[in-house]
Amino acid sequence: MTVLVTGGAGYIGSHMVWDLVDAGESVVVLDRLSTGFEWAVAPEAELVVGDIADTALVSRLIAEKGIREIIHFAGSIVVPESVADPLGYYLNNTVASRALLEAAVAGGVKHFIFSSTAAVYGSPKAMPVPETQAPAPESPYGTSKWMTELMLRDAAAAHPFTFAALRYFNVAGADPRGRAGQSTRGATHLIKVASETALGKRPFLEVFGDDYDTPDGTCVRDYIHVSDLAAAHRRALDYLRAGGDSLVANCGYGHGYSVLEVLDTVRRVVGRDFDVRMAGRRPGDASAIVADASLARQAFGWEPRYDDLPLIVRHALDWEEALGRRNAR
Ligand SMILES: NC(=O)c1ccc[n+]([C@@H]2O[C@H](COP(=O)([O-])OP(=O)(O)OC[C@H]3O[C@@H](n4cnc5c(N)ncnc54)[C@H](O)[C@@H]3O)[C@@H](O)[C@H]2O)c1
Ligand SMILES: O=c1ccn([C@@H]2O[C@H](COP(=O)(O)OP(=O)(O)O[C@H]3O[C@H](CO)[C@H](O)[C@H](O)[C@H]3O)[C@@H](O)[C@H]2O)c(=O)[nH]1
């Protein structure tokens, strides 16, 4: 059996591919390389360069490779960009996912795992936020992902497949063995931007808003190590293979850090200061969001290994340094 990983040349997808390959699975990656990299795909996996919205291509892959499971990471991921270009986000996240799902259903795919997001919740009143909290996204990005969750729910009621929609909180860090990491050009994610700034690749970092209703006024997020997230997917896949019901599950650790706390951690880990400037709020940002992650533990036995912010930052910095050496070659 071969697993199809869409977006497997991207940040999280490339870690997933390594995790599957390490477990002896056969893997095909479908990625159009818009933000991903050919070199990021583990050599044991087969990379097909193409678009998930290309139903003919996906149908051919499903038939030719005997695909029964899809892990779907491909998409557009930047919250403020989605505020500026909502239709582009609905196209690449919702419409393209619909096309992929149509090919999956027609091709007899049995299990589907989907990259959803904490952004579906908006700024929840009660925290940590459980999956039972009604979604109230504050950005087109969050809405585009929630719409895909709803399509999965309805399609799974009508067709013989099961799914897990995993709502990731803030993903950071890199493969502890140094084989993968975040290589995104012009990245906007806090730990990535802070790592680049700390290593002198950017002149300064801006803190987007210090007037939120949080203890120090900056936004609070639940940062999860990318390798723990990949492990959660493999657990979810095993659960679905064993006949588990479709589910929606948070992936986070259950504790939040403010932007300033993250920056302090980066300073301590790297052992030097860097230029941080206060700036206005960024469109689409929720003030605080922390996961209730008990369902993932109960339903499919997920046990995080890297719930340690300094370690996440250490791995992100190690990758950033390796990336610097790669780009210098
Ligand atoms: N990074 C986070 O903190 C975070 C949090 C929650 C959810 N997610 C979700 O996880 C998934 C992966 O995110 P990432 O951080 O690895 O981003 P990424 O940009 O590194 O990876 C996305 C990959 O998908 C590919 N892609 C995009 N559109 C495509 C299309 N139409 N057809 C084929 N390939 C396409 C890109 O080339 C890239 O390799 C996304 O769906 C994102 O919404 C990410
Ligand atoms: O240079 C920066 C970058 C970020 N931030 C702040 O740091 C926090 C985290 O921002 P990120 O861009 O790292 O992450 P987001 O919370 O905006 O979004 C991320 O996590 C979400 C889930 O919560 C989504 O799924 C999305 O894909 C992913 O980008 C936010 O308050 C943001 O304003 C800064 O102050 N300066």
From TrEMBL:
Known catalytic reactions: UDP-alpha-D-glucose = UDP-alpha-D-galactose
Listed GO MF terms: UDP-glucose 4-epimerase activity
Pathway: Carbohydrate metabolism; galactose metabolism
Cited CDD domains: UDP_G4E_1_SDR_e
EC numbers: 5.1.3.2
Superkingdom per UniProt: Bacteria
SUPFAM superfamilies linked: NAD(P)-binding Rossmann-fold domains
GO biological process entries: galactose catabolic process via UDP-galactose, Leloir pathway
Names of required cofactors: NAD(+)
Family stated for the protein in its record: Belongs to the NAD(P)-dependent epimerase/dehydratase family.
Subunit structure: Homodimer.
Annotated protein name in UniProt: UDP-glucose 4-epimerase
